[in-house]
Amino acid sequence: MANEQKVREQEYLDQTLKQIDLAQLEAQEEIKKSKGSLSDVASGWDDVRVKTSTYSGIVETAMSIRQQQQAIEERQSAKSRAEDRYQTLAKQKEKPYFARIDFIDDAEEKREKETVYIGLASFADDDGKFWVYDWRTPVASIYYDGGLGKVDYQTPAGKQTADVTLKRQFEIEKGVIVTLFDTEEAIGDAMLLNALSGESTTKMKSIVTTIQKEQNKIIRNTDADLLFVQGAAGSGKTAAIMQRVAYLLYRYRGKLNSGQVVMFSPNQLFNDYVDQVLPELGEQNLVQLTFYQYASHRLPRFEVQTLEERFESNHQNEKIERLLGSLDMFKAVRAYAEDLNQSGLKVRNLNFRGDVLLSKEKIQSIYYQYNENYKLSQRLEATQESLIRSLRSQVGAQMKQDWVELAIENLSKQEYDEMVGAGQVRLGDDEVNDAGDLTRLHQLGEGPKERTFASDKQERNFLAKKIVTQALRPLAKRVRRAGFININAQFVDLLRALPKYLSLADYQISEAEWRTYVDAFVASLKEKKLSLPATTIYLYLYDLITGKHGQREIRYLFIDEIQDYTPFQLAFLKFSFPNAKFTVLGDLNQAIFTQDWASSLEEDFASLFDPDKVDFVELTQTYRSTKQITDFSKGLLRDGKTIEAFNRSGDLPVMKLAKTEGQAIDEVKAQLIKNAQDGEQTAIITQTLAEAKALAKELADQKITLIRSENQRLAPGAVILPSYLAKGLEFDAVIVWQADASHYSEENVRRLLYTVTSRAMHRLTLIGSGQLSPMIEELPKSLYKLEDGHAK
Ligand SMILES: Nc1ncnc2c1ncn2[C@@H]1O[C@H](COP(=O)(O)OP(=O)(O)OP(=O)(O)O)[C@@H](O)[C@H]1O
């Protein structure tokens, strides 16, 4: 019977493959045809007559050029459509589908049984018969959401119910069905186990064949403005959102493109790790960046605190950090900015050739001459216009100055020619447009002509005007960029005024402590250094004053490892991406930067959204690690009970405690060899970068890559990296270095230890010297094996 089934399924597969072949031939024909017609169109250029002597001639020329361009664009897009189709078909031929469901749709009157095959993309033949359905179609949801029997699924027309009679999973290789099995559950454990027991690669893979029901909820959610996903380490949060992006791009095809989807990720290494998932699913990659990259590229003149500095400076001033990262602070900045409508804007003089051209007082009086109905941004715009006018009105006076005379005398022949030939330049004109205009003039055969002058005086005036205008241009640029606002001084003023806007006592901070902090801050600002919380406040204040409206074109924003963000940062992201729907993922147990207040993060962030538009999904089942590793890691947590290990068995984690550090290093070497022999890719995780560097030196004779910065690439083979760079990643085998009392005693590194141990998929070794870490000592002995560390 089973064999008979396999034969019948193989027949269906053969037919599907045959149809795909036919479709591929058609696509090939199409490509050829559009190539041919492209060259036909290209020869059409000969018919484009360039007439530039009259205005209507110019218009006619422009029109025919445009028509020609359009014809080429159309053919080209037909060609690339056919090429895309060809590529998709080629991919589909390898594995056309991975599952089949049979069901009776309750909405259909006839109640006939339907059979649907599910694959990475849909495939229909010329007659419109669907041989395969894309995993993202509404009907495919049935496959992920339940077992046999009644299953609800969402369609664009609303909820529908189906009666599922068969769920079958396939493994297909090179056109042959290798295995096939029927299941009654949502996704058979056997298939999941199979997917999970493979070895790690340096790249994350797609999980479409084994998406779990809870993950499917995350992937297909389209209602929420804020989708909050809390899940243990390794519970597939990242995997789920990568598939979610693919789903959204499919669902909103034509309306949404991958450039409108942004993901904030924990570090650059992680970006590297996930960058194959979407291409594997036939989609383009989304925009990925870290908060550091986002903030620091906007402030090129500052040294923004790096991940390493942030991690290593942690807890220096916890009360203040907490205040700076709070929503209270966010509101205080807004209130402070609001008050700037009345008074207090800090500006700089606009100097020209060493003299004050427009004084601070003058600029301030312009800024505050507009009535109270003006908002900050309008006030600024009106001030800029007025300042540009003032600059223009200075031209006449400057032209009479001695420096202009001198400049005219010193003009070289080339400079003179350039000035006289290039046409009129007006202060405040956009340079780019000027260049554009010139090019256009050139194209239409009207290049700049040498100017002639009626008199010497006229020539001198012309040159003087040019010279002054050019000299004033940097100032005009500065005005347009609002460079006269002294944002540094404004920021310091905000900090000094802060006690007026919020209660320091709520954060157990005295006024004197605050003053000391602000003084230290001023000193670091002088050195152009900014901590990450300060950077965010700085940007927010700047955006409020200049009326920046954020990036309105971004429709979906994903934030991974949300527990490492402060409420302020999140509120700022919401402000900066006003039209985006947010999907945020986090594991409060892995808060390594923000510590205790991470627990109120969810509430704080949700308070910024309409409560009806906030959805919360919790993932408790973990997939990454073996049961033994998960049980050990969760044991480290004070509150790890809700985490459920997937039933995949492996060895117990081993704690090797050596007498001396030298012996511990020998243990590391021995373990590296063992892991390599067993084909397990190893990551040695240290707490800090300095420790990673020191250990790498000791292991200089081993083949091992030190990952010291987030901008490095993940290398195959063994790696050594500090804890904060291991975020979000996974490895076959992990060695936790210095996992002893000297490094893991304080409560504030408990979550860090959990984070690093949960990176291991198959093998976890903890190596240290001296005393056992109390966090490990208090674990039940059944969760790990304790060995003396004296490697032979
Ligand atoms: N449904 C699934 N089928 C197969 N593999 C899965 C599934 N869900 C997750 N995985 C695998 O489990 C591992 C962990 O997933 P992922 O990295 O998404 O977890 P995470 O919740 O983001 O973890 P962390 O918080 O530790 O970064 C990955 O290798 C992923 O491919």
Automatic annotation (TrEMBL):
Alphabetical keyword list: ATP-binding, Coiled coil, Helicase, Hydrolase, Nucleotide-binding
Amino acids binding ATP: 231-238
Keyword Coiled coil: yes
Pfam families reported for this sequence: UvrD-helicase (PF00580), UvrD_C_2 (PF13538)
Gene3D superfamilies hit by this protein: 1.10.10.160, P-loop containing nucleotide triphosphate hydrolases
Protein origin, superkingdom: Bacteria
SUPFAM superfamilies with a match to the protein in the record: P-loop containing nucleoside triphosphate hydrolases (SSF52540)
InterPro entries, A to Z: DExx_box_DNA_helicase_dom_sf, DNA_helicase_UvrD/REP, HelD_bacillota, P-loop_NTPase, UvrD-like_ATP-bd, UvrD-like_helicase_C
Protein known as: AAA family ATPase
